UniProtKB/TrEMBL annotation:
Catalyzes the ATP-dependent phosphorylation of thiamine-monophosphate (TMP) to form thiamine-pyrophosphate (TPP), the active form of vitamin B1. This is Thiamine-monophosphate kinase. Its EC number is 2.7.4.16. The keyword ATP-binding applies. The keyword Cell division does not apply. ATP binds at residues 117, 134-135, 161, 240. Residues 40-152 form the PurM-like N-terminal domain.
Amino acid sequence: MLKSKEYTSTSLSQLGEFGLIDHLTQHIKLTQKSTIKGVGDDAAVLEVKDQQMVLTTDLLIEGVHFDLSYMPLKHLGYKAVMVNLSDVYAMNAQASQLTISIAVSNRFPLEAIEELYAGIYLAANTYGVDVVGGDTTSSTSGLLLSITAVGHAVAEDIVYRSGAKPTDLLVVTGDLGAAYMGLQILEREKEVFKVNPQNQPDLDPYAYLIERQLKPEARKDVIELFKKMEIVPTSMIDVSDGLSSEIMHLCKASKVGAKLYEEKIPLDPAMINVCEEFKLDSTTITLSGGEDYELLFTLDQKDYDAIKGNPNFTVIGHMTEEKEGAHLITRANQQIKLEDRGWNSFEE
Ligand SMILES: [Mg+2]
């Protein structure tokens, strides 16, 4: 997995830009009824009746956001789509269309770009969204990938960061910190590989963590669950930068405080084991790690019965009056102030 892949190489210049676009878009099948026109005109045409549209975009740059020495191109394509879909779901909206833009240097042959798009299309098909446009161009060095996602929902269903009330429950989906620890494993193996390229690492014990890093899944299922349970969170955000800063975003936008209970934070056993191996504190990792792509939301207490006992959800705390601030309550019952970036264990 860490070895760079050998491609039979077809140079991109053989196809030209239009040839490349035709090649990459030839198998698109549109499935969303809101897509009136996809690829093939000057612009895509979308139609959504009586609903509001949500739009989000993300730019990923080689060497800044991803490292191709351990990130296979197919995974990169898949993950880039997930990052965007996760933001659409964080608005409690259904994702429906994507545009894909890439800039590539001549270091990448056609076969490498095909693999990137294989990941993009796998994600789009799995989540039922249409690829309706984009752009390809050359770059002087490296790979740059920008994805825009469109979604929609009726106005009453859209959830902002700003709706939390002081007595609401604070709830998170899935488990946290695994993607960050997966990255630590991959970074470590990359260093081992540099010293000894013959070394074949046994990554089996870390499979879950590496999968969370390389192939995250956006929580479309949770949005569908909300609909089925007939609940609408009061505020929501996706966990891309670590729990601490995401809680702070909700507090700031909603003008409330929060109490987060350390003992409630959901952790996978594999994540706990690897934290011990790396001598890292698992709570610190969940607070300041990142890339979990879970949903963090607040819920009116009257809706507690709907989520009670459901393994997708963990109540990790509750909101408070703004003047009380945002704090972590440790297992030892200490109160520690949460910070925008990570947490400061020396305060109070
Ligand atoms: Mg987000």
